[in-house]
Amino acid sequence: MTKAWIYCRLDKPSTHTQEMEQLKLRLLNYANNKGYEVVGTTEEFGSGRICDRRDLNEILEQAQNEKFDILVSERGDHIARELSEYYKFSSKLKERGARMEHITGLDIFGKDIEVFDDAPEPAKRKPDCELIGQDGNIFNLIGIAQRTLKRNGMGDEAKEMFERINAEAKDYSHALCIIGEYVNITGPGEEAGMEEMSL
After folding, report:
1. What gap in Å lies between CA 59 and CA 23, rounded to an integer?
2. Torsion angle of C-alpha atoms 123, 125, 128, 131, degrees rounded to 10
């Protein structure tokens, strides 16, 4: 049976214990539904700016000791809010034979990626996606692009885009390039086909 470690992080102080408990329950429910054996839980309050944190280092030690196979968290930015830090931790985890799994993709706002049971046939052209002027956090942009693809009946492309960014992107610019392969990056009131953008 696949062994899972639950990781919960909130920016807010420890007075928000009810919110933490709700988060932990969501993750436990997800792991149980996937058939994972939950072998441990970590709860952390504080900033996710960098990945060199005591709790994450302790998780790496558990992975080194082969205590779990999958680290389950709600979103990618619960691990680290910056893409470079996120991949730094991801690489360390993979070196120890474990991987991460996020239950709501990488949307920084925590909104579930929408799934449409009666989705139309995939569009033949890339859908327009208003990313210019949005919060430039890469996790936010990925989440917006994923939802745009799903709204256009391109659920497979949304999954493929996420997997490619996770496996291939080495920095912020590379991640944006991959996003641009799946959606037309636009701004408010702008037409598709822009060759240049700034975030």
Report:
1. 18
2. 100
DSSP-derived letter for residue 76 is G
pLDDT in tens, the chain (199 residues): 899 999 999 887 655 667 888 888 888 888 888 889 999 999 998 888 888 999 999 999 999 999 999 999 988 888 988 888 888 999 999 999 999 998 875 433 333 433 333 333 433 478 999 888 888 888 999 999 999 999 999 999 999 999 999 888 888 878 887 888 898 888 776 554 333 333 3
DSSP H or E stretch at residue 97: none
The Cα 140–Cα 158 span in angstroms is: 14
User: Which ranges in the chain belong to alpha helices (H)?
Assistant: 17-33, 54-64, 83-95, 138-151, 155-168, 172-180
Helix (H) or strand (E) holding 71: strand 70-73
Using a CB cutoff of 8 Å and minimum separation of 24, what contacts does 29-37 make?
30/72, 30/103, 31/4, 31/6, 31/72, 34/2, 34/4, 35/1, 35/2, 36/1, 36/2, 36/3, 36/4, 36/70, 36/72, 37/1, 37/2, 37/3, 37/4
pLDDT (0 to 100) of residue 170: 81
What token pair was written down for 75? 């979103």
Residue 188: Cβ-neighbour burial (10 angstroms; 0-12, 13-18, 19+): exposed
